[in-house]
Amino acid sequence: MRLNKPVAYIVTALMAIGCAIPAWAQLKIEVTNGVADPVPVAIVPFAKPPADNSLDVAQVVEHDLQGSGRFRALARTQMPASPTQPNAVVMTDWKNAGEDYIVVGRVVPLDGGNLAVDFDLLNVLTGQRVVGQRFVGTPGALRNAAHRVSDVVYEKILGIRGAFATRIAYVSVEGQPPAQKFQLIVADADGENQRLVLESRYPLMSPSWSPDGQWLSYVSFENKRSAIYVQLVRSGERRQVSARVGINGAPVWSPDGKKLALTLGGSSGNPDIYILELQTQNLVRLTDDPSIDTEPCWSPDGKSIYFTSDRAGGPQIYRIGVNPGDRPKRITFTGNYNARPRLSADGNLLAMVTLDSGNYRVAVQDLSNSSVRVLSKGHLDESPSFAPNGSTIMFSEREGNRGILATVSVDGLIGLRLKSEQGEVREPAWGPFAQ
Amino acid sequence: MRKILMVLLLATALAGAGGCASKKPKPGASQSTEVGANNGADSSGAGADAANAGNVGSDEDVAGPTGGLLAKRVIYFDFDSSDIKGEGNDVVAAHAKYLASHTSTRVRLEGNTDDRGSREYNIGLGERRAQSVRRALMLQGATEAQVSTVSYGAERPAVVGNDEAAWSKNRRVEIVYLGPGGQAAPVQPQR
Question: Which domain-ending residue is among A130, A158, A186?
Fold first, then answer.
């Protein structure tokens, strides 16, 4: 009889769902480069109920827009007035201050304890209201409401859907073996509002979001061997979905949310790509090659898988259809190291780690014409992950001996860093749009 | 332009998640793990056997044999290589001889890489190194049931650093002796 050991999982992992991370671990945004002509916008402090010490909504919006690199927010000390209603805005004052747009707003308490965030975006040059909108939520959701304001302003001015009200997952590591501490953390896309999902003394790797943003899959070595789990972020409920002999790695959710693509190594240690149906545990093998096949990623239509393979010597990226019997087709030909593919939501861009004159960097390949552009500038950049709007890629880079998170726009023009005071952060996974 | 008021109810889920009064994880939070882990074991259902085939055996690390080459537990590798080199061959031979004469003793081979490149690909490279040592042990008398492997890729560096001195210490396979657990070994002993 085999021994069943759920108990062993318990000892090494500690979960703390819904608890905030200490202040020292917060991520701070630093703009490393931006566009030459950012849009000038004034976000006037929102009206609040008297004696309300809650979140400064306008500051969060300012932080989002300024942090996107595409806007230049007017400093509050430079503002000619502090209107909170659209009809109180004197357009010429703001035109003279050099602004193209102005945002005014109000936080209004509602019966039952909820708050409403009302805001108006005005075009200073035409004098017209571009949009007015209200978001309602609990006081605890005020930050999320602020990010939604940012999303609307971003989309109305730039014509691109904003991705501020989204979340990221990443891995934080402190210390060295045998005293390592791995944490799986979920935060707002700006690094704020961090929540600890899982903690372990053994490696946690490869977080991936379900398409509905409710679940994470990841690899945990908490049992001194690799296993893949899926976990409901809100409650912490989790299921072990693969703990087979050898490598259990690189899980990624299918676009329909029903399957994981993953890497299994088996007892011979030869990693290949498989698809696991979560409901039935039905497993389909996609590749069978003596080389390393790993790091699968789905095409947005769910019909093919891109993956890393060193079947031609060094690692390159291949694509294979999900129907059994399909044969892999090589996708990358520039350079001798291309790995860890991720696709943009429109399926047009492939992000990867490429060896660029001795440095591991994030690059994108345009799948329509195979042109490759190196986007990052570090020496050990890795784990690129697209924002759901496809405009930005988050990745991890090295600062000294520490890993930090960074973003770069897909045109390479805008770079940001999300710095934590302590520890190392890596493997960011950008979640989907909120539903 | 007409005023457009869109009312959008925010999901209260995020707010609800902020239920901890304390800024620090509570000790009681670890209780959630037990619930979660047990759910995991139960809800795997019929697929549990297949899914958990590897999760058997007591893998308590023990000190293992000492003296001479047996005290050496780390095999080092060149960049992008899984070939055992130099003294590594002697260390592997000593452990193979020991395992061949102690058939109930088991080891776990932990493959590691330096931290360059992508993480899951490095898991593959680390496994390739562990398998290289496993094959060498088995060629020299150890049995399949005695030797398991795990790859930590770049996740558990021996030395932190951004130079060859650090990298060369991290490209390694560690031989870890395991406590008695013959009745629960992943593969039935072959005799």
Answer: A158
pTM attached to this predicted model: 0.85
Pairing of strands A329-330, A314-321: antiparallel
With beta carbons less than 8 A apart as the criterion, state whether A294 and B121 touch: yes
User: A135 and A188 share a domain?
Assistant: no
Check whether residue A83 and residue A194 sit in a common domain: no
Reading the block at residue A38, the tokens are 């950012």
Which residues of chain B are within 8 Å of residue A398 when distances are taken between CB atoms?
162
A357 found inside a domain: yes
Minimum-distance CB partner of B17 among A128, A195, A281: A195
- ipTM of the prediction: 0.89
> B119: which residues sit within 8 A by CB, 6+ positions away?
A205, A206, A340, A382, A383, A426, A427, B153, B154, B155
Cβ neighbours for A121, distance < 8 A, ≥ 6 positions apart: A101, A102, A103, A129, A130, A131, A132, A152, A153, A156, A157
pLDDT tens for A143-177 read 999 999 999 999 999 999 999 999 999 999 998 88
Domains and CATH numbers, chain B: 73-181 (3.30.1330.60)
Q: What is the pLDDT, as a whole number, of residue A5? A: 36
Q: Within this chain, do residues A143 and A240 fall inside the same structural domain, yes or no?
A: no
A234 contacts on B by Cβ (under 8 Å)? 13, 16-17
Contact A144 B124 (CB under 8 A): no
Q: Say yes or no: A237 contacts chain B, CB-CB below 8 A.
A: yes
| Residue among B6, B51, B59 whose CB faces A133 most closely | B6
Per the prediction, chain A carries an average pLDDT of 91
